[in-house]
Design goal:
CATH class of the largest domain: Mainly Alpha
Order of helices and strands: HHHHHHHEEHEHEHHEHHEHHHHHHH
CATH topology of the largest domain: Fumarase C, Chain A, domain 2
Distance between the termini: 52 Å
CATH architecture of the largest domain: Up-down Bundle
Helix content: 55-70%
Length: 464
C-alpha cells in the first residue's frame, strides 16, 4: 500500500522496512491526545479562514466518532499503519472524504508528535503527582501512629542512636514531598505547545498558534520553531524525576525487605503483598518490595537511553527521536505501578514495637547521650566522648548495657558519674530530649508532620 507521504517516491516500501519504521505498536496509546490535538488544529484552521467552518464541523465530528469507536473497541487500531497519526488521518479521510485531507494543512508530523507527547506526559505527570500525594498521606498517617515507637537509627547499617519509627517514616515523607515538587516543576516545561512549528521552519499560512495552544490548555507556545520540533528535554526531565522517585522507593523497599526478615522482625508485610516459595513452605517473600527495587534499574536505563539518543542529533527532527516514547512510557508505567503498590501495601503492614524496642536496647546506641550527660557535668565533649567509650568497653566486658552497668563500674571510670546518669541513658528519655528542629522526639515529629500537612494543604489548593 502506498503511504500518505507518497510523492517524491512512489511510497512503496519493503515489508521489513515498514516493520522497522513503524511506531504504532507503542504510540497508539496516544490516540486520545492525537485526536484532541487534531480537533484543536481544525478549529484554528477554521478560525483563521484556512478551511471552511463546514469542513471544521465535519472534521471535528469525524474525529469525535473515531475517538468513541476506538474507546468502545468498535474500531481497533490498525497496526499496519505507520503511526497513530497516519491511522487517525486515514480513518478520518475514509469516513468524511476530502475534508479529512485538509486537516494536515499548516502542520507536520514533527510538531504533531511533539504535541501528542507533551499532552500525554502532561496527563501522566498529573497521575504521578496524585499517586505521590496519596503515598505521602499514607506515610504521614503511619508516622503519626508510630511517633513514639522506639527503634534503632542506623549509620553504615550499624546501630547508631535511638529514634522512633515515626521519625524514620517522616524522612520518607520529606523525600516524596520533594519528588512531588519536582513533578510539578517538570510539568511546567512539559506544558508548552509546539504545534504550529510544522516540520521545522513554521508555515506561510496565517495561523494562530496561541489560539490552538489555548484550546489544548497550554499557557505558552514554543517560541522557536526549530526548538519546537527538536526538543525532548521535557521527556528527559520527567524520566529524571521518575528515576529519583524510584530511587526513594527502592531505598524504602530495601528497608522493608530487611525489616521483614527474621533477623530484624521489625515489620510483617500483609499477606496480600507477599508471595510464597514453590519448595519451602515456611517462606513469605517480600516480592513486591523486591520488584520495586529491581524496576528502579529500568527507569535509570530509560533515562540514559534518552540522554544517549539525543546527545549527537543535529537540529531539527531526526527519526532517532521516535525512540523517545518507549523509554518514557515505560518509566511512567513503572513508577505509577510501584507507587500504587506502596499505597496498597503500607497501611496493612504490621509493626512489631517490642522487637524494635529490644533492638534499640542493644548496641549501646545511647552512648552519645551518655557523653552529653558528661558535658552537662562540665567535661569538654572530646573528654566526655572518650569516657563514654570506656564505659561502653566496660559494659561489653561485663555483658551489660549502659542502662544495667552498675554505678560502681561507672565510678571506677570517673567520679563525675552519679545516679542521675541512668535517667540520661534511658531510651525514652534519650529520644524525648532530642528537641532541635527536625529531631527524633515525638514532639518534634508532630511538628514535622504539621509542617508537612501545611505543605500538602498548599499543594491541594494549588498555592505552589
Amino acid at each position: 500500500m502506498a503511504k500518505m507521504w507518497a510523492g517524491r517516491t512512489d511510497g512503496i516500501t519493503d515489508k521489513a522496512a515498514d516493520d522497522f519504521n513503524s511506531s504504532i505498536s507503542f504510540d497508539s496509546r496516544m490516540y486520545r491526545q492525537d485526536i484532541e490535538g487534531s480537533i484543536a488544529h481544525a478549529r484554528m484552521l477554521a478560525k483563521c479562514g484556512i478551511i471552511s467552518e463546514q469542513d471544521c464541523a465535519l472534521i471535528s465530528e469525524g474525529l469525535a466518532g473515531i475517538l468513541a469507536d476506538v474507546e468502545s473497541g468498535a474500531l481497533p487500531v490498525d497496526l499496519s499503519c505507520e503511526d497513530i497519526h497516519m491511522f487517525v488521518e486515514q480513518v478520518l479521510t475514509e469516513r468524511i472524504g476530502d475534508a479529512g485531507k485538509r486537516l494536515h494543512t499548516a502542520r507536520s508530523r514533527n510538531d504533531q508528535v511533539a504535541l501528542d507527547l507533551r499532552l500525554y506526559l502532561r496527563a501522566s505527570s498529573d497521575e504521578i503527582a496524585a499517586a505521590l500525594r496519596e503515598l505521602i498521606g499514607v506515610c504521614a498517617d503511619l508516622a503519626s501512629k508510630y511517633k513514639d515507637c522506639i527503634m534503632p537509627g542506623y549509620t553504615h547499617l550499624q546501630r547508631a542512636q535511638p529514634v522512633t519509627f515515626g521519625h524514620h517514616l517522616t524522612a520518607y515523607c520529606m523525600m516524596l514531598l520533594r519528588d512531588l515538587d519536582r513533578v510539578r516543576d517538570a510539568r511546567k516545561r512539559i506544558n508548552i505547545s509546539p504545534i504550529g512549528s510544522c516540520a521545522l521552519a513554521g508555515t506561510t499560512y496565517e495561523t494562530d498558534r496561541y489560539f490552538e495552544a489555548s484550546e489544548l490548555g497550554f499557557p505558552e507556545i514554543s517560541v522557536n520553531s526549530i526548538d519546537g520540533v527538536s526538543d525532548r528535554d521535557f521527556a528527559i526531565e520527567l524520566c529524571g524525576v521518575i528515576a529519583i522517585i524510584m530511587m526513594h522507593l527502592s531505598r524504602l523497599s530495601e528497608e522493608l525487605i530487611m525489616w521483614s526478615s527474621f533477623e530484624f522482625r521489625f515489620v510483617t508485610l500483609p499477606d496480600s503483598f507477599t508471595t510464597g516459595s514453590s519448595i519451602m513452605p515456611q517462606k513469605k517473600n517480600p516480592d513486591m518490595a523486591e520488584l520495586a527495587r529491581g524496576k528502579t534499574a529500568r527507569t535509570y536505563g530509560n533515562l540514559l537511553t534518552l540522554l544517549t539518543m539525543m546527545k549527537g542529533l543535529p537540529l531539527a527532527y531526526n527519526k532517532d527521536m521516535q525512540e523517545d516514547k518507549e523509554p518514557v512510557f515505560d518509566s511512567v508505567d513503572t513508577v505509577l505501578a510501584c507507587l500504587n503498590i506502596f499505597i496498597g501495601m503500607l497501611p496493612g503492614m504490621k509493626v512489631h514495637r517490642d522487637n524494635m524496642r529490644r533492638a534499640a536496647g542493644e548496641g549501646f546506641i545511647n552512648a552519645t547521650d551518655l557523653a552529653d550527660y558528661l558535658v552537662s557535668k562540665g567535661l569538654p565533649f572530646r573528654d566526655a566522648y572518650k569516657l563514654s567509650g570506656r564505659a561502653v568497653a566496660r559494659a561489653v566486658e561485663t555483658g551489660d548495657t549502659l542502662e544495667t552497668l552498675p554505678l560502681s563500674e561507672y565510678k571506677a571510670l570517673s567520679g563525675v558519674f552519679d545516679e542521675d546518669l541512668y535517667r540520661a541513658v534511658d531510651l525514652d528519655a534519650c529520644v524525648a530530649r532530642k528537641k532541635s528542629t527536625g529531631a527524633a522526639s515525638p514532639a518534634s515529629v508532630e511538628e514535622q508532620l504539621k509542617w508537612l500537612s501545611e505543605e500538602l494543604r498548599k499543594y491541594d489548593q494549588g498555592i505552589h
